[in-house]
Amino acid sequence: MADISIDVLIIGTGPAGSTTAALLSSYGIANMVVNRYRWLANTPRAHITNQRTMEVLRDLGREVEDEAYMFAAHQDLMGENVFCESLAGEEIGRMKAWGNHPLSRAEHLMSSPTRMNDLPQTYMEPLLFKTACQRGTQARMSTEYLRHEQDATGVTTTCLDRLTGKEITIRSKYLVGADGAKSLVAEHAGLPFEGRMGVGGSMNILFRADLSKYVAHRPSVLYWVMQPGADVGGIGMGLVRMVRPWNEWLIVWGYDINGPEPEVTPEFATGVARQLIGDPDLEIELLSANVWTVNNYYANRTAEGRVFCMGDAIHRHPPSNGLGSNTSIQDAFNLAWKLAMVLKGQAGARLLDSYDAERAPIAKQIVTRANQSIAETGPIFAALGMAEGVSPEQMQKNLQARTEGTPEAEAQRAAIRKAIAFKKYEFDAHGVEMNQRYRSNAVVTQGQIEPAFQLDPDLHAQPTTWPGARLPHVWLYRHDNGAEVSTLDLCGHGRFTLLTGLGGEAWVQAAQAVAAELGLDLAVHVIGPRRPHVDHSGEWARLSEIGDDGCLLVRPDHHVAWRATGMSAAPEADLSRVLRAVLDR
Ligand code: FDA
User: Fold this and answer.
1) Could you tell me which of 230, 223, 221, 202 has the C-alpha nearest to residue 381?
2) Which residues contact 172 (CB under 8 A, 6 or more apart)?
């Protein structure tokens, strides 16, 4: 007999675990989350918060979304991605990043009701965790996962209560391993991994110092420092990273993973800070310093029976592209509604298979992308004549060479510009953030052809209602008061939604009948003149890819489950068939 019994046990209160807990509690599922420490992240860690993640927070509630904005550095402060000799030294180039180029900003505004922002994990985690606990999650801190065993009806997990030193057993129907990059749950579940851990060495130096005079005129979250040794180990370049504008900072500096691990003493940390900022007299208030490794490692399978892993437990990669916490939160958005529907008896267990089918390819994609971004800093060093092995004296000469009026110098300047512009694949890769399309048994395409990407899929978001894609965002207007409402706001909140237009009323009746038949909460919206939501701008007509009498069936995670371009001869039978297929009924 276990000490505690709960529907879902979650190991880890990081972005993945806390989001899962918050979503499950919002959906009315009893869950418990444990963390081996007594509190949440004690260093800022991940910051970049992309629009897709903000859509998850918005789905949790406007108050959750608003609180994130309240504590975040606004998108306008993120954008002047600077490459320099040091913060006080010469600037070598820059590019507008994170949706701050006017063309990119337009794409951001058109893609989502939310805004990208920069929110340190020390703010994000408490927000998610608080939301979970407020809504019913049982949280147990200082509780360390030790092992689990699963059988046909559930999982028995043994944890160590670190306050008493006693072991406790927790019986749950499902176990979620959100226990980070050293995941024991993934290891014990026997998940197969590909790639390598520890491909580079890096150190984080967190400190306070007012650097306004170096940065306020070129606001950015990232200042890249090109100095001898900056391309060794680490993330490709020396980095001065804004934590809070402009008085809290994180320096990321690499070391050779094949050599001994450096001891980051206060003197050493101060020396690195002075060197990268370019101020030999700079005084810093050192907050913490630690070393970490660059990983290139992902799970080929993310679940085993009743055990599901997510976040860094299944994708381990450097912070390039800012994908770590974002992808972890998005994993949770994919899994939580499925667990809820299975536990409520609204879906069969096979629905859960779609988690692996949908998220394992994403794990591989983002690990590969983040590591590729490190490699893509090489051409900047090459263009500057700063490749590894070149002496500091020669480097200075090569840097100097670009300032001359010769054809060689002009060619060098062109090469530098090209290499910096190419970094948009790391710093402005909106497509990587927004274009996730799923293929699984929880999507019914009925042979509808996947639309090809018209622009580079890593750089540009391309809206489509092709089943498996995320529902496009369009601002609709409320008929009663004219207020803007995103199409995404009509969906989500743990339920399926059917969207149709004038002439699609038969879909509404069909949806109501099928919802009653299957015991589902299914929201239905008719979009059109004198209906509750009106497409005054015509954007919905342009992007929905269905006729007014067609319909979209949207999953609780905003992804399209099924699309009918027009009215069918038997709408109720069609909808019943599709929902039964998706929900394994
Ligand atoms: P996360 O690691 O956040 O959470 C794991 C949770 O599991 C923690 O609550 C932990 O205590 C708990 N846990 C682990 N083992 C346990 C056990 N046996 N029993 C109980 N609980 C257990 N990313 C980025 O994009 N930019 C950055 O600058 C950084 N910097 C950074 C610094 C440091 C020091 C770390 C550790 C990580 C980063 N990251 C980062 C990575 C980013 O923080 C990461 O991608 C997300 O936190 C992943 O979220 P998860 O919820 O998956 O794991």
Assistant:
1) 230
2) 5, 6, 7, 8, 9, 32, 154, 155, 157
Ligand 1 atom closest to the Cα of residue 313 is 52
Task: Supply the residue whose CA is at minimum distance from atom 37 of ligand 1.
Answer: 45
Domain-wise residue ranges, the chain: 4-75+117-194+299-362, 378-422, 437-582
The Å distance, Cα 110 to ligand 1 centre, comes to 32
Burial of 382 (0-12, 13-18, 19+ CB in 10 A): middle
Query: Do 4-75+117-194+299-362 and 437-582 have matching folds?
Result: no
Q: What is the pLDDT along the chain (585 residues), one digit of tens a residue?
A: 899 999 999 999 999 999 999 999 999 999 999 999 999 999 999 999 999 999 999 999 999 999 999 999 999 999 999 999 999 999 999 999 999 999 999 999 999 999 999 999 999 999 999 999 999 999 999 999 999 999 999 999 999 999 999 999 999 999 999 999 999 999 999 999 999 999 989 999 999 999 999 999 999 999 999 887 777 777 768 899 999 999 999 999 988 888 888 899 999 999 999 999 999 999 999 999 999 999 999 999 999 999 999 999 999 999 999 999 999 999 999 999 999 999 999 999 999 999 999 999 999 999 999 999 999 999 998 998 887 777 778 878 888 999 999 999 999 999 999 999 999 999 999 999 999 999 999 999 999 999 999 999 999 999 999 999 999 999 999 999 999 999 999 999 999 999 999 999 999 999 999 999 999 999 999 999 999 999 999 999 999 999 999 999 999 999 999 999 999 999 999 999 999 999 999
CATH number 3.50.50.60 is the correct assignment for the domain at 4-75+117-194+299-362: yes
Q: Which of 33, 123, 298, 312 to mutate to test the pocket of ligand 1 (most atoms within 8 A of CB)?
A: 312
Residue range 437-582 in CATH 3.10.180.10: no
Pocket mutation for ligand 1, best pick of 38, 45, 321 (most atoms within 8 Å of C-beta): 45
* Among protein residues, the one whose CA lies closest to atom 10 of ligand 1: 12
Quick check: CB of 12 below 6 Å from ligand 1? yes
ipTM above 0.90, yes or no: yes
Distance CA 560, CA 462 (A): 14
> Token pair of 565, please?
């371009």
Find the 311 Cα to ligand 1 centroid distance in Å.
8
